[in-house]
Amino acid sequence: MRPFLLLSTRAEDDAADDEYTGFLRATGLAERDLHRVRLEAGPLPEIELDDYAGVLLGGSPFTTSDPVEQKSDVQLRVEHELDRLLDVVVARDLPFLGACYGIGTLGTHQGGVVDRTYGEPISAVRVALTPAGRADPLLAGMPAAFDAFVGHKEACRVLPPSATLLAGSAGCPVQMFRVGRNVYATQFHPELDVPGLVTRMHVYQHAGYFPPAELDELVARVTPAVVTEPGRLLAAFVARFG
């Protein structure tokens, strides 16, 4: 079996390593079968996409819709590299799944509108599949509605013309879409469990997602959450394209 590729943009080792662990757990892959490239650490190396069964893109502290003048040189480089990569992925309809940051990158790349209209606080929300979502092969066997972890400053407000809406929630109409047959993005985090979410809350408590003084209260609020279904999406991605 060809390995899968995980692209990460988290500069904090605790968050980056925990994200990698989350993807390993949800996909069921061994480390040898999930290669990781940390884009924030240096330029994207030359990648032969045919060597990989599929590409996964993790979440990010970067906010796609921020004004250019507010973005760091690293963020601008990462966005440029991902844009070039998506040129190839979309044109060839290669297996791709971007989580959270994937909505911003793929949505913007495909001409959608990504802004702060539908940001959601860190929480477990109810996600509902659309009719197209219920018919999508990657979502086969998923319940029509399920809980998922979210926490994002921006979201896709206007769906790209090339995209098919697969899922939404009350506070964020675009929770998942597909471009072509094999290119997917989710606003929710399919790789997260409660310990992973708590790790990120500690790492990013000063990043503007919530008032830092509310950390303990927020941890107590999310800890009882029972979120079981989103990880099946990653397992299905590996089963379908591996």
Automatic annotation (TrEMBL):
Keyword RNA-binding set for record: no
Keyword Membrane part of the UniProt annotation: no
Keywords: Glutamine amidotransferase
Pfam families in the record: GATase (PF00117)
CDD domains: GATase1_1
Organism annotation: Blastococcus goldschmidtiae
Domain of life: Bacteria
Gene3D superfamilies found in the cross-reference section: 3.40.50.880
InterPro entries for this protein: ChyE-like (IPR044992), Class_I_gatase-like (IPR029062), GATASE (IPR017926)
SUPFAM superfamilies tied to this protein: Class I glutamine amidotransferase-like
Glutamine amidotransferase domain mapped to chain residues: 43-192
The protein's name in its UniProt record: Glutamine amidotransferase
